[in-house]
């Protein structure tokens, strides 16, 4: 809607359009163009209300007509929409919104619409303790829930009256419970607007506290930026990034020697040496398992040259032989032995299955074998004859009882 059309529109139409924009922005995230348009329409409503002189400082809520009662909400709607405007200078937006909220609260206070609890806390300068703040928020929340329930009840009552009116116009029977005798429409509308203002007052106090806290935080940040200076802050950020980059490059240079895959470590003692810093990964192929050294021998550096050093190194040494290899090295040696044994067995198996070995076993006994067998038999017979002539123990005179 252009500026010309807005100038030609009456106040009720402008307020209804602004109320719809406010409802849209409250229920969902409206775009900035719609929010700015709503703020412009509400400012136009303020100008028209001021020119028409609808309200006076000497009036109360009972003196205001039902038709003009709704225009009291214009500053509240403007404060909520203005708070949603996106702008670089956020502090200025907060100040304008707070000014409109204070204007709305002061006018409602003059109209005797603000609860006594809120008036007492405002005259005392706000609650001092956390208990008072909590009690105040709970009471405000209860009033807000009661106002929302009442508005919902009024809405349902209007819907029932509308259904009853349609049923009466169509000459159809009315359902049970829908033939309630309602008050006049003007009284119901007045009650609805007063309840809406009561709800708006609760929201205005909460929003005002929130905007004050946000303004304090932004002011503190801005003051710190002015003291330190934006250039110094930017330079500090750059210096921090430079330090991080240099530290990363130094660590990368240190890790270069470990980027290539090293040989697998098969010795537990060497792995422990690497972990404790006594050896490096590059020495894996040169590492030899050394038996642990106890006592003064561990304090003697280098080779033992003198007899005194050799005697001192033997102090507190164990009385048994220490292992000369680790479990891993013994396993590797045993694995080599098994591999050699398997290779030898495989070679013997191949020789056993060869043709010349099978052919030699198929040959019959020769004459030399027969001669050897005859000589062995004669020797065995001679030995048996000798054992018959010389019984066991015959030459031992000490075995005889009276010899």
Question: In terms of topology, how is this protein built?
Answer:
Blueprint (H helix, E strand, L loop, with lengths): L2 H6 L2 H17 L4 H21 L13 H4 L4 H10 L6 H21 L5 H8 L6 H40 L15 H44 L1 H25 L13 H8 L31 H7 L13 H26 L2 H8 L4 H23 L14
Helix pairs in contact: 2-3, 2-5, 3-5, 5-6, 6-9, 8-9
GO molecular function, one term: protein phosphatase 2A binding
Family: Belongs to the IGBP1/TAP42 family.
Organism: Liquidambar formosana (Formosan gum)
What does this structure look like?
It holds the Pfam family TAP42. InterPro entries: TAP42/TAP46-like_sf, TAP46-like. It comes from Liquidambar formosana. This protein has 403 residues and is mostly helical. Among the domains are: 54-236, TAP42-like family (Serine Threonine Protein Phosphatase 5, Tetratricopeptide repeat), CATH 1.25.40.540; 264-336, no CATH class. It is built from 15 helices and no strands. It has helices at 3-8, 11-27, 32-52, 66-69, 74-83, 90-110, 116-123, 130-169, 185-228, 230-254, 268-275, 307-313, 327-352, 355-362, 367-389. The model is unreliable at 176-183 (pLDDT under 50).
Observed structural traits:
single chain, 403 residues, mainly alpha, Serine Threonine Protein Phosphatase 5, Tetratricopeptide repeat, protein phosphatase 2A binding
Shape: elongated
CATH topology of one domain: Serine Threonine Protein Phosphatase 5, Tetratricopeptide repeat
CATH class descriptor of one domain: Mainly Alpha
Low-confidence stretches: 176-183
- Strand content bin: under 5%
Question: Based on DSSP secondary structure assignment, what is the total number of beta strands?
Answer: 0
Rg over alpha carbons:
55 Å
CATH architectural name of one domain: Alpha Horseshoe
How far apart are the first and last residues' alpha carbons, in Å?
155 Å
Structural class by sheet pairing and helices = mainly alpha
CATH homologous superfamily of one domain, by name?
A: TAP42-like family
- Main β-sheet: number of strands, strand sense, barrel status? none
Helical segment tally? 15
N to C succession of SSEs: HHHHHHHHHHHHHHH
Helix content: 55-70%
- The average pLDDT is 76
């Amino acid at each position: 809607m252009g500026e010309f059309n807005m100038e030609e529109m009456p106040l009720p139409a402008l307020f209804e359009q602004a109320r719809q924009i406010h409802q849209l922005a409250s229920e969902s995230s409206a775009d900035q163009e719609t929010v700015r348009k709503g703020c412009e329409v509400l400012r136009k409503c303020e100008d028209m209300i001021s020119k028409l002189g609808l309200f006076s400082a000497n009036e109360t809520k009972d003196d205001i007509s039902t038709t003009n009662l709704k225009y009291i909400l214009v500053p509240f709607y403007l404060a909520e929409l203005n708070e949603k405007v996106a702008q670089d200078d956020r502090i200025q937006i907060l100040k304008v919104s707070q000014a409109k909220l204070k204007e709305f609260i002061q006018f409602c206070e003059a109209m005797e619409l603000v609860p006594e609890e809120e008036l007492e806390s405002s005259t005392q300068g706000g609650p001092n303790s956390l208990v008072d703040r909590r009690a105040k928020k709970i009471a405000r929340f209860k009033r807000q829930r009661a106002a929302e329930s009442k508005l919902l009840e009024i809405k349902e009552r209007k819907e029932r009256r509308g259904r009853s009116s349609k049923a009466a116009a169509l000459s159809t029977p009315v359902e049970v419970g829908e033939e309630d005798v309602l008050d006049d429409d003007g009284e119901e509308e007045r009650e609805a607007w007063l309840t809406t203002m009561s709800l708006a007052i609760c929201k205005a106090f909460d929003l005002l506290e929130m905007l004050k806290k946000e303004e304090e935080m932004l002011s503190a940040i801005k003051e710190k930026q002015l003291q330190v200076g934006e250039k110094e802050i930017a330079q500090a950020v750059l210096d921090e990034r430079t330090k991080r980059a240099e530290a990363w490059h130094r660590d990368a240079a240190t890790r270069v020697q470990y980027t290539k895959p090293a040989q697998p470590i098969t010795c537990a003692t060497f792995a422990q040496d690497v972990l404790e810093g006594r050896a490096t990964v590059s020495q894996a192929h040169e590492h030899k398992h050394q038996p642990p050294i106890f006592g003064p021998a561990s304090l003697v550096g280098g080779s033992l040259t003198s007899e005194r050093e050799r005697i001192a190194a033997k102090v507190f040494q164990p009385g048994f032989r220490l292992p000369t290899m680790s479990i891993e090295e013994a396993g590797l040696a045993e694995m080599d032995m098994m591999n050699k044994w398997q290779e030898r067995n495989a070679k013997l198996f191949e020789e056993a299955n060869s043709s010349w070995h099978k052919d030699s076993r198929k040959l019959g006994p020769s004459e030399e074998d027969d001669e050897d067998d005859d000589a062995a038999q004669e020797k065995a017979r001679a030995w048996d004859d000798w054992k018959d002539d010389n019984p066991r123990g015959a030459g031992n005179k000490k075995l005889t009882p009276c010899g």
